């Protein structure tokens, strides 16, 4: 009788264990925690050292702590070459990421081609409409939104440079073909600023850093008293700015960190907002808001930075401009 009871109990336990096993099979209706939404940030170079990703991730963790269990923040190192980048993004798209976060217009263009169905957040200085990554600023069919850091500030940069050094008479602006092409509608403004200050505006163009250095060192550049470097591939390489600074000539840059190293002035968007703004957009999309329904943001916060250097070759900086500066480095 006892043996029968144990045998019967064994059958009951076996049935119960089988029932549990069936209940945990896929499609059985049992509750399972959903896989975290993968937010893939396109990093440049060593992903672990990409400062833009770190600022984005820190902002997401601090501003959206409740979402952290539902997401996975991933930094994906992608090549700078567009074709290689496109291949890498096509491979990544096959893993079904919830979202791409990209740093610039080139990455945005490549991501849109490689994975048009994957929602995307971008940060770009160029117009997203001109880049072809969005067809509208308010609403668009593409699953895309982001920040247009509209860098049409070169006229203001020239004005500030001439205000800072009133004795300047020959000022050069050095850009590449893409910058010159986008300048057409603003050239008259810059020429008017130069004329108002009694200065001559000299536009120079180069397509490589080596070509830019040759222009800076050319005999004809001796009469140039100061330089403006717009935000182009030429200014991203610090060699051009360092060569100008080594000549003891004032340099206006388009990015605040350049003033800490080489430039004497910069006027730029206050980029401290970019990490938090991108984190907020990512959270909205993860929570279900369609990216195409979120208006593209155009920030309007600017920052003037100046650096005072003890160089006898440099003209004295106007103290009024120093007092107006948001950042002063001595």
Q: In summary, what is this structure?
A:
The chain is α/β, with parallel strands linked by helices.
Walk me through what this model shows.
It is a single chain. The model is unreliable at 1-28 (pLDDT under 50). The chain has a 7-stranded mixed sheet with strand order 7-6-8-9-10-11-12, with helices on both faces. The chain has a 5-stranded parallel sheet with strand order 2-1-3-4-5, sandwiched between helices. The chain has helices spanning 2-23, 51-63, 82-93, 105-114, 128-131, 154-164, 177-183, 187-196, 209-217, 233-236, 238-246, 257-261, 274-286, 319-324; strands at residues 37-44, 71-78, 99-101, 120-124, 144-148, 170-175, 200-205, 226-228, 251-253, 265-269, 302-307, 327-329. With 330 residues, it is α/β, with parallel strands linked by helices. It contains 14 helices and 12 strands. The termini are far apart. The protein folds into 2 domains: 37-150 and 272-293, Rossmann fold; 154-253 and 302-329, Response regulator (Rossmann fold). Helix content is 41%, strand content 18%.
